[in-house]
Amino acid sequence: MNKHVTSSVIATALLVAVGCASQPKTHLVANGDPIADAEASMKAAPTNDLVLWQYRIGTMCLRAGRADDAKSYFDQALTRINGIMGSDRTAAAARNKFKAESKKTFIGEPYERVMANFYRGLLYWKDGELDNARACFINAQFQDSDAGLAYLKASGKIDQAAKASTSKKAAAKAEEAQREKEAAETFASDYVLFDYLEGWTKAAQGSDGTDAFRRAAALAKDRVLPGYDSAAKVMVFAEYGQGPTKYATGKHNSELRFKPGITNVTSARLKIGETVHELAPYDDINFQATTRGGRVMDCILKSKAVFKSSTDTVGDVAIAAGAGTAVTAGSYGNAGGYAALGMMVFGLISKTVSAAANPAADVRCWDNLPAYLSFKAIALPPGRHEATVEFLDSTNAVVSTKTLTVDVPNQAANTVVFVSDRNY
Amino acid sequence: MKTRLLLPPTFAASVLVLLVGCATGVQNPSGVNVTQMNADERGSVTSTGIESQDLVAVTDKMARSILAIPEIANAQGTPRVALDPVINETRFPINKDIFLTRIRAELNTKAQGKVRFLARDRMVTLERERDLKQAGEVTSSSDPNAVEFRGTDFYLTGKLQGMTARTSRGTSDYILYAFQLIDARTSDIVWEDSAEIKKQGQEDAAYR
Known about the structure:
The complex is a heterodimer.
Chain A: H1 2-19, H2 34-44, H3 50-63, H4 67-82, H5 89-95, H6 110-126, H7 130-143, H8 148-163, H9 168-185, H10 192-204, H11 210-220, E1 234-240, E2 245-249, E3 255-259, E4 267-272, E5 275-279, E6 281-284, H12 285-290, H13 296-328, H14 334-356, E7 372-378, E8 383-392, E9 398-408, E10 415-420
Parallel strand pairs in A: 1-10
Antiparallel strand pairs in A: 1-7, 2-3, 4-5, 4-8, 6-7, 8-9
Helix pairs in contact in A: 2-3, 3-4, 4-6, 6-7, 7-10, 8-9, 10-11, 13-14
Chain B: H1 2-21, H2 52-67, H3 70-73, E1 80-83, E2 87-89, H4 97-110, E3 116-117, H5 123-134, E4 154-167, E5 170-183, E6 189-201
Parallel strand pairs in B: 1-3, 1-4, 2-4
Antiparallel strand pairs in B: 4-5, 5-6
Helix pairs in contact in B: 2-4
């Protein structure tokens, strides 16, 4: 007996030691250049996190003025996220009860996909490719068009009501579902800036941007948006504040939540000579992240969590019942003993299955996003202009300042300026 | 005796658990061989956006259509055509010049000289060459001061427009590819044709 126990233990230990040694750990050393450090981290990261790193590093390059590198990173990320249709093995793994959601290829939540399109769009504009800039802004708004789980549930209820009898009760249910659907839609495609920029790119090409402007104006509600001034050729994109992060909550960390970034910068202003241009926020990424509503994946994670809990409970009950039976087994002879052992083994297996189940939500997060996006088109004569951007808190006190040089080569083409309250 | 019977299953269960636990999730660890495909073939990597098979189908249709119009088929002399960039109003960033490049290449291959395209995208190089000839720095086979750059008879251009719908059943993208041949003298649209492509798909539930 001792021989068998010893050999089993040794073999198991060997399996643990050898079998699981397929993921080499890389020790990263910071070299002082944040972009180089992030690139090193990307190389060491799992393949499924590649897009996440491309997002992060693309943003860092954009802020550091390395536009070509930023374009390359965003292009790679967008190629991946735009080709996500259909079956995907990593996504199937993420739905598996025994694998975490983070097994899937990271493409990000809608607000993250939106931002990748936004950044690429402004880089296209910088290169004078207005068509492609517009395509990115339209695509950004589209990425936010998924109204989430509440919308899907309400749509399902409406479909059911349509199939049901024409009773007053069914009609009332359909009406209620319609209201739910409309409420869910309130937060879909509700970025002001992207419709506004779509119109700008059209106007800049001599087309009619009125329709897009009207949509943006409707989304802006009480705020009055400036019209498209054909003399304004300098496009200033500004971002500031700290964007959202993700965390998991619930008994098994199966519920994904978004935590707004803590920031005291809430607006900015651009000073060129004596002229001051307000850079008020058009969109709030924290608001966008927290108003999406549930995901379809949340249902899958909930089902995984239920499975984990129930197998655990079944295990507890079976072990307890087996132990109870073992106590009284003496009265029933060998049969009672086998039954008790069987129940306990079953309980252990159930507990093992429960322990292996993994309903953890994916909290990988594009963590260097801003909180606010702003835009201003201004008219400047050709030449070099020294400018200052002041980032302000809610009392209009200056939190930080950046200086920049705006080179306007001529009046024919647009000049794109990007400014962030961060250096990376 | 009872312990002996229990140990092999225990060990087997341990192995099973470890195998499940140690799965790395790496797909195609040895990679996937490169597959050569025809440009008009629908590959396994697809999206609802603009793909090579769409480009081939659309530009083939346009090239055939242009050749059949009387302004080209029955033209006195050889009409000259210049390209004016396509306007992309879809939600897909693309290299929009690729459409006109392929139409031009198809026409140059199949039109047998019925139509000539002007290399307006090479004007900087051409003007530099002319200047060198005019300055006598390089030889010239004709009078370098004569204006020989041709004006265009027609402009070939187009517009890509799209409509996107997203429902609980997936995403649908419709794209209208419209091309025109415009008389440079009168602004008449002497030819127009279009192609429509609609695609739909849905991402895995893990991404919704």
